[in-house]
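Box S1 | Example of a co-folding query
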Amino acid sequence: MGKIYVVGIGPGDAETMTFRAREVLEGCDVIAGYTLYVDLVRADYPEKEFYTTGMRGETERCEACVRMAREGKTVALICSGDAGVYGMASPLLEAAQRAGVDDVEIIPGVTAALSGAALLGAPLSHDFCVISLSDLLTPQETIEKRLLCAAQGDLCIVLYNPASHGRPDHLKRACGILLRVLPPSVCCGLVRNIGRDGTESLTCTLGELGNMPADMLTTVYIGNSQTRIVNGRLLTPRGYTGT
Ligand code: SAH
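Box S1 (continued) | Returned holo structure for S-adenosyl-L-homocysteine
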């Protein structure tokens, strides 16, 4: 019986991959994953076997990894960012359990919320939450309830999946919901293509955010009531000392 590693490779650049993730990729027989992510590492490991599937091929990808492990191979199933954050760690654990494969190890990676925050400044220095705007696996009402609760709690909010192929308006709708609770002056930011060619970051207000361009490779930040823009950087103080 082989072994499966589920590996978070970070945002995309080789430097931001952890040393442990690199070690696992060097030692494995097969690198498996979504085509786009496998292409990010393919050139560095020309001697490896590769297994890729398209974006919706997640179940098939997990089952193939389990099959290869049962054949005695060491498989690295890679994900961008962290493997457990909207990633393959949970579907793989389910597939492994169904197939009786016990030897699975999850290797953490730098999730987009954190690598993007570093580009913007220090937006997450106080309590924050992460919400995905994708309604593929989550009912729209649940997403809306979470947005409202986060706003009511004065949490800094990181939005993943602000747009999808069929649905470019997720971000605009989310802003409309947040603006029921929050003033339009709240400081916000967007980061696009972290760790890849053409990295972009910008700051704006919540009133402006809904009209900002956001695609599938954008991560969005909404500050709390204390967040300011200082020299073009988003800064959330460590506390509420002014109150
Ligand atoms: N497992 C990933 C998240 C996958 S969900 C992680 O931990 O980062 C996909 C969403 O993550 C995208 O819609 C986007 O919001 C964010 N994301 C992933 N990679 C990104 C990158 N390189 N630049 C900006 N945002 C990214």
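Helices lie at 19-27, 35-41, 58-70, 89-99, 112-120, 140-152, 170-178, 206-209. The pocket of S-adenosyl-L-homocysteine is lined by residues 11-12, 79-82, 85-87, 111-112, 116, 160-161, 191-196, 216-219 (CB under 6 Å).
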